[in-house]
Input
Amino acid sequence: MNGADASEFEPVSWLLVFHRRCTTPVLNRFVIGEFKHVSAVGWIAASESWVFYDPSLNRTQILVMPDSPGVAAYSSIAVGNAVLRMPVLARRGSARLGFWCVPAIKHLVGLRSGALRPDALWRDCLANGAEIVSR
Output
């Protein structure tokens, strides 16, 4: 936003949803570890809405929903998956190398990490201030 302060219009922390299954069936066999994908959900107080950020290989999906439908959507996504509450660490972020979910989420929260897989991202988030919401 060209230097304008937009901090009240973006989440101060994100709920990172670590999915145990991919929507692309073939990836479930190739992604090593418990978690196969990661997406994010954030609350924007100024607009009383939820933003859903889902970077996948075929496209990145961003949805904004009012409070009640947003809570219902988050609840359906969280079922069967693990969730961390991760504060935004730096507004400037880190360099984004790659176009899959892990680099996108690291960039979203400003996490400097060498993680390439969701399991490693889970560990790095916990080491940098994340809290477990559900496991």
The first strand starts at residue 13 and ends at 19. Helices lie at 25-30, 67-78, 101-109, 118-127. The two ends are 36 Å apart (CA to CA). The mean pLDDT is 90.
